[in-house]
């Protein structure tokens, strides 16, 4: 598949000192979805194979406010720890991916419906006429190519994400699990992700339905 490249005029780099050490940041405006995204880079992944990589979908409630009903915040933190410990890797933070791409307002609608009706994360979206997963990983593929990453070890439990990235031209050589602790607040969500969306979550104790 021929893919668009990032326009250098829409990319800016700097260093970012964090509690986990200093990362190189690559902020970019994607030529297709027009959102501004961010990659955090540790070490020097250019020209390397099997680069430890997390492609993280924005979740304001989980990432910023530590919501317990999803595991996004735990996964973001754990992925950054893993990459920082390893010394080389990339975290791509994709904006516009709220609620698997439906946006924050509709995500809040699905959450209210889940709480009021008992529907799970999949059925609450379809009941509202919303797509179950509208995310596009093109921006992640474009920034990984910009960084000259040759292939990745992808931090995810989601085989679909690995396939989608591969389809976008980024070879995913293996998947590295990112198992957030199951809690009473997120058990329903994790179970639905396992049973309805095919995520690999072997640590859940609830039997498969
Ligand atoms: Zn979340």
Number of helical elements? 8
Classify the oligomer.
single chain
Mean pLDDT: 94
Structural class: alpha/beta
Shape, principal axes of CA atoms: globular
Rg computed from alpha carbons, rounded to a whole number of angstroms: 17 Å
CATH class of the domain at 8-97 and 138-179: Alpha Beta
Any guess at the CATH architecture of the domain at 8-97 and 138-179?
3-Layer(aba) Sandwich
Helix percent band: 25-40%
**What would you give as the CATH superfamily of the domain at 8-97 and 138-179?**
GTP cyclohydrolase II
- Count of distinct strands: 7
Q: How are strands sequenced across the largest beta sheet?
A: 1-2-3-5-4-6-7
Examine the coordinates and then state which fold CATH places here, giving the name of the CATH topology of the domain at 8-97 and 138-179. Answer: Rossmann fold
Determine the N-to-C terminus distance.
38 Å
The main pleated sheet reads as: 7 strands, mixed
Active site: 133, 135
Pathway: Cofactor biosynthesis; riboflavin biosynthesis; 5-amino-6-(D-ribitylamino)uracil from GTP: step 1/4
EC number: 3.5.4.25
InterPro entries: GTP_cyclohydro_II, RibA, RibA-like_sf
């Amino acid at each position: 598949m021929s893919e668009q490249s990032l326009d250098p005029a829409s990319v800016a780099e700097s260093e970012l000192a964090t509690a986990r050490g200093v990362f190189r940041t690559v902020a970019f405006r994607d030529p297709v979805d027009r959102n501004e995204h961010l990659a955090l880079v540790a070490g020097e992944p250019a020209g390397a194979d099997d680069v430890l990589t997390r492609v993280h979908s924005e979740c304001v409630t989980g990432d910023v406010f530590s919501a317990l009903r999803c595991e996004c915040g735990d996964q973001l933190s754990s992925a950054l720890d893993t990459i920082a410990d390893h010394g080389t890797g990339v975290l791509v933070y994709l904006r516009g991916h709220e609620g698997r791409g439906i946006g924050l307002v509709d995500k809040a609608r699905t959450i209210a419906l889940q709480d009021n009706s008992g529907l799970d994360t999949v059925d609450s979206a379809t009941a509202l006429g919303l797509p179950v997963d509208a995310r596009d990983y093109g921006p992640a593929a474009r920034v990984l190519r910009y960084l000259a990453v040759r292939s990745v070890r992808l931090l995810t439990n989601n085989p679909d994400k690995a396939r989608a990235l591969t389809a976008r031209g980024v070879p995913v050589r293996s998947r590295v699990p990112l198992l957030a602790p199951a809690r009473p607040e997120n058990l329903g969500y994790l179970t639905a992700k396992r049973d309805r969306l095919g995520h690999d979550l072997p640590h859940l104790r609830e039997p498969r339905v």
